[in-house]
Write a structure and sequence with these properties.
- The complex is a heterodimer of chains A (about 500) and B (about 325).
- With about 500 residues, chain A is an alpha/beta fold.
- Chain A folds into three domains: about 240 residues, P-loop containing nucleotide triphosphate hydrolases (Rossmann fold), CATH 3.40.50; about 150 residues, P-loop containing nucleotide triphosphate hydrolases (Rossmann fold, 3-Layer(aba) Sandwich), CATH 3.40.50.300; about 70 residues, no CATH class.
- Chain A is about 35% helix and about 25% strand.
- In chain A, the strands form four sheets. A six-stranded mixed sheet of chain A has the order 6-7-8-3-9-10, with helices on both faces. A six-stranded mixed sheet of chain A has the order 16-17-18-13-19-20, with helices on both faces.
- In chain A, β11 and β12 form a beta hairpin.
- In chain A, α14 packs across α15.
- Chain A is globular, with a radius of gyration of 25 Å.
- Chain B has 15 helices and two strands.
- In chain B, α3 crosses α9, α3 crosses α12 and α5 runs antiparallel to α6.
- The longest helix of chain B has 27 residues.
- The relative contact order of chain B is 0.19.
- Classes of the chains: A alpha/beta (about 500), B mainly alpha (about 325).
- Chains A and B meet through α2 of A and α9 and α10 of B.
Chain lengths: ~500, ~325
């Protein structure tokens, strides 16, 4: 009998179906991988299993008994403990306070026994081989990887029956991954079930006993590890052929002038010695594992970060971009389609017209006043050019669908006549149909002589849409793929950036 | 290897608040023709109402909220107390109990509206502050009432040779130090620091918020009782100055308005900085008009010094 089981679980967010009759089960004493593309429903399932979300329908069974958790605390009491990437540590509490939050040891006055708590935390960290982490330091002062280890320690301290690691190793280096694996193996021996989510296929093949693949919110397959090859697993995850969704790529490599060039560009310890050039007519992809500096690169180029190093050349001329305003005005102009269109890209309660004209107000305003006729005609032009589906130009942007909102973000920059577009994962959370329109629009912009720097977490986009793709690892560009070399498997191996020796070291 | 932040690095905002207090206090003592124990007690008493009320404000601001009903609640409890007290100690004790219950009930109402009504603290407490002022005016349309002399003496002079102000401050600090080591105390820090992470760790943000605002109501009621003893009268409109001054005291004491960071120890210094500024300006015979200008300027300066670290943040999106 399965220790934890999900039967016919469905969950919708507004119009988006995240889980559609999903099935999942895992056994005691096993490490079970949960695989799928971004948006396949893995995280939604994990949140339902751990009491963060309630399913719309379906049953969760623990030891064969139906359970329903109304909060993470209830799930934790039942023994289901999740480790989310950077989500459950309170930054201003100390390591020990975080580990024992809600279960602090108390003295005979009923007050928290801080000394005892710190001692127990130190003992726990020591037993997990994390003795370099001091228990009385606020979590916010720890580097990312150590925070992740504290998350794991916090979960282990709760003596879980089911431990869920949702990308729990993505912030860790090779040595720390090894330490984590040792902990998981120990838990497995003690009869704990571990659900393991990772983008790193090698990790999954090393540590997992069995795997379940999800696609589009549905269960696709469950199998013992070793039953299927790497390629079989990937094809189960991708499932559909996406090739015809993408516009045809021009056969000739774009040889236009260089619009944007960086030389030894850097910022803090997140971006290091970045040198590349973006040509007119080119879509240049940016790939990598989560959080290797791809997003930072776009934001730093757009002037959102202070204290960047190195040189940025726009149209061959050195440019000093120290704010988004400067980025928009500099020579040929930059445009950013940001990560979160709802907070950084759009002002949701304002109308489509107002949002579109926001970056160009300075240009169209006459002595400070906005000529409404001109504003209206410009907005109408964009709405028809990009086929934005809106009742009228006057409806609040917040009422549009995600895909149409993204088109408004692009429209506002089209009017600004920017020549270089920085796109931060622009198709995330958008349905396939609108994605297709956005791909065509991107290719159209490139054909008109613009340069597009395109960060995406979707490998198929990077492979099928881009002319070239930069691969980043730990803040550096580790390789550039183009032409026949630009394949999903090459992207994945470049993104892992493991030398043969390192692979041998970790995965023996 | 990582460098541990020193004691000074960690507690810089609190130490700055005490430094400001010491400088102002030194100035004030220097100005006075002579300085006696009686004057020390009088200075302690002048800041006491604010110091008590700011305890509740600290709790609320630690959760990331704000309580704008502090002043009206002090006025309401002051009005109730002065209207019902007599010379009979039993009756006074009952009135004290009633006042504390009124304060907690009003605070709980704030908390329930904020936590379960999912309304913004600033709006809720602005609205309830008008309601509480209305209640106070209903109880005490005109200033007056009766406060027994022994009640005033007990709270504002000394008990068994020890100044009452000192005892009160010691009790407040002890309560705070104990509170920090309760689960509720940790919860308040946790939800102010990251409500999502707190929720994921099994804390109920709604319950913690109701508790914070209820305790804030209680602390306003205690402040109201002290204010009653100090002024020996009841007035429905006397408390308003404490609302913004309590926020100022908390901020001066190094507690972040964003929540999650700070504590009451700094707030005490903040409260006394504000009350000593008023004393100094009064002593220098600065007109009340300029007094508020100076007070505002000093507050701005102190907050600016506390925020210097923000200039080092390199990701501009994090500062916004």
């Amino acid at each position: 009998m399965a220790l934890l089981e999900a039967r016919d679980v469905s969950k919708r967010f507004g119009g988006v179906v995240a889980l559609d009759g999903a099935e999942f089960h895992c056994e005691a004493g096993q490490i079970h991988a949960l695989l799928g593309e971004n948006g396949a429903g893995k995280s939604t399932l994990v949140k339902i299993l751990s009491g963060v979300l309630e399913p719309d329908s379906g049953t969760i069974l623990l030891n064969g008994q139906p359970v329903s958790f109304r909060s993470p605390a209830e799930a934790a009491r039942a023994g289901i403990v999740p480790v989310f990437q950077e989500l459950s540590l309170v930054p201003d509490l100390t390591v020990a306070q975080n580990i024992f939050i809600g279960r602090e040891p108390r003295n005979r006055w009923g007050l928290i026994d801080v000394a005892e708590m710190n001692r127990k935390a130190a003992e726990l960290l020591h037993s997990l081989d994390f003795q370099h982490i001091e228990p009385d330091i606020p979590a916010r002062e720890l580097p990312l990887a150590e925070r992740q280890l504290v998350e794991i320690a916090k979960a282990v301290a709760r003596e879980p029956k089911v431990l869920i690691l949702d990308e729990g190793t993505s912030a860790l280096g090779a040595h720390e991954v090894q330490q984590t694996f040792a902990i998981l193996r120990r838990l497995r021996e003690q009869g704990c079930a571990v659900v393991f989510i990772s983008h790193r296929m090698e990790e999954i093949q090393t540590i997992c006993d069995s795997a379940t693949v999800f696609r589009d919110g549905r269960h696709v397959a469950t199998f013992a590890m070793g039953e299927k090859s790497h390629d079989e697993i990937v094809s189960l995850m991708i499932g559909r052929k996406l090739a015809d969704v993408f516009p045809p790529r021009p056969a000739r490599p774009p040889e236009g002038r260089v619009l944007l060039e960086t030389r030894e560009f850097g910022w803090e310890d997140r971006l290091k010695e970045i040198s590349f050039s973006l040509h007119a007519g080119e879509i240049l992809g940016v790939a990598g594992l989560e959080g290797q500096g791809q997003g930072d690169l776009l934001l730093a180029l757009f002037g959102a970060y202070a204290g960047t190093r190195g040189q940025v050349l726009l149209d061959g001329k050195p440019a000093r971009i120290n704010s988004p305003t400067a980025a928009m005005r500099a020579g040929i102009g930059l445009a950013l389609v940001p990560e979160d269109r709802k907070t950084q890209g759009l002002i949701l309660p304002m109308s489509v017209r107002e949002n579109i004209s926001l970056p160009t107000l300075r240009r169209i305003a006459r002595v400070g006043f906005i000529p409404s006729s001109e504003e209206r005609s410009r907005a109408a032009e964009m709405i028809s050019k990009l086929a934005i589906k809106a009742g009228s130009a006057e409806v609040p942007v917040g009422t549009l669908s995600g895909g149409n909102q993204q088109k408004v973000v692009i429209a506002k920059w089209l009017l600004s006549q920017a020549k270089v577009y920085l796109l931060y994962d622009p198709t995330r959370g958008i349905d396939v149909g609108t994605k297709q329109e956005i791909y065509r629009l991107m290719r159209q912009l490139a054909d008109e002589g613009l340069g597009l720097l395109f960060f995406s977490t979707d490998l198929s986009e990077l492979v099928n849409l881009c002319d070239r793709t930069l691969v980043m690892y730990e803040g550096r560009i580790v390789s550039t793929l183009a032409g026949a070399e630009l394949t999903e498997s090459n992207l994945v191996s470049a993104a892992l950036n493991l030398s043969p020796q390192e692979k041998a070291q970790i995965y023996v | 290897m990582r460098r541990r932040r020193s004691f000074f690095g960690r507690n810089a905002p609190v130490l700055l608040a005490y430094l400001a207090f010491v400088i102002l206090m030194g100035t004030y003592i220097g100005l006075l023709p002579r300085f006696s124990g009686a004057q020390a007690i009088s200075i302690a008493n002048q800041g006491m109402t604010l110091a008590i009320a700011s305890l509740g404000q600290t709790l609320v601001i630690l959760t990331g909220g704000v309580d704008l009903s502090v002043g009206p609640l002090i006025a309401l409890t002051n009005s109730v107390a002065a209207s019902l007290m007599s010379d009979d100690p039993v009756r006074v004790a009952l009135v004290v109990l009633l006042v504390l219950i009124v304060g907690m009930a009003c605070g709980a109402l704030n908390g329930i509206l904020i936590a379960y009504g999912r309304l913004q603290p600033i709006v809720v407490t602005l609205a309830t502050s008008s309601i509480y002022t209305g209640c106070a005016l209903f109880v005490r349309p005109r200033p007056g009432g009766y406060v027994p002399e022994w009640f005033t003496d007990a709270l504002t002079t000394s008990v068994a040779g020890i100044p009452s102000a000192l005892i009160l401050l010691a009790v407040l600090v002890a309560l705070w130090l104990a509170f920090r080591r309760t689960r509720l105390g940790v919860s308040l820090y946790a939800i102010g620091s990251s409500e999502g992470a707190a929720f994921m760790s099994g804390i109920s943000p709604a319950r913690a918020k109701v508790a914070a605002y209820t305790l804030a109501g209680l602390s306003s009621a205690v402040a109201g009782l002290f204010f009653t003893a100090q002024t020996a009268t009841g007035s429905a409109l006397s408390g308003n100055v404490f609302t913004l001054n309590s926020v100022a005291a908390v901020v001066l004491g190094g507690t972040s308005l964003a929540g999650g960071r700070g504590g009451y120890i700094g707030t005490i210094a903040g409260a006394y900085v504000i009350s000593v500024i008023v004393s100094v300006l009064f002593f220098l015979q600065v007109s009340p008009f300029y007094q508020s200008m100076f007070q505002g300027g000093i507050l701005l300066l102190a907050v600016a010094i506390g925020s210097l670290q923000l200039l080092r943040v390199k990701n501009r999106l994090e500062v916004l």
